[in-house]
Structures are given as C-alpha cells and as structure tokens.
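Record 1 of the preview.
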Amino acid sequence: QVQLVESGGGLVQAGDSLKLSCAASGLPFNLYAMGWFRQAPGKEREFVATISWSGGRTNYSDSVKGRFTVSRDNAKNTVSLQMNSLKPEDTAVYYCAADRLTLRMPLSTRSYAYGDWGQGTQVTVSS
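->
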C-alpha cells in the first residue's frame, strides 16, 4: 500500500521561506516522478512542481517558478519543496503525489497523471 505523508506546513509571513517534505513508502520510489499540487479554498487543485524519477528533470508552474525548488532523495524516499519569497496567494493545502506510470517522460503537470496522493499540509501566508 502506497503511503505519502507531507510535513512542514505552517503559518508564515509574506516574504518568508518554508520547506515541505513528503515521505513515501510502499512503492519503488526511484521509478516514479513526484509532483506537488495545491488547493486554495474555493479553487481547483493546481499544479505546482514535478520532478523526474532520477531528479534530473523538473517543471514548475509559472506562478512559483524562480521561488520554489523541488528536490528528491531516492535513498531516503523523500521529495521536498523549498518555498522562498512566499506570497499570500501561495496560501493553500499542499499535496505530494506519485505518478501513475514508472519512468514517465515528459513530466506531466496534470493531476490525473498522478495516482497516489498524500493527505496534504496547510500553508498559510499572511500579508
């Protein structure tokens, strides 16, 4: 059974940094691209970032490009999202997700491409 557990969310001020982590188990982690998505109240879930199985390729939404960095440690089965220069509009529940397919390329930004999801972690950025 696949389990994805996010951590690291919290309440910060605009301009602050926060690092989210996602611990994965129950899957051959180094074969799957991993994604980060977020959902703000009253809005649809949106793509944030994704990283290939090796960590060699990444993709970001335009809204976070240059501020967020996704990384992974295949030895520890973890994927992280470093978030800098946070803005109030970054406020959302953040989810990590594992791709449905192994070794997918190119990386997908679509939520339907990801089959397993964590429970989410709340990030709140005050102005």
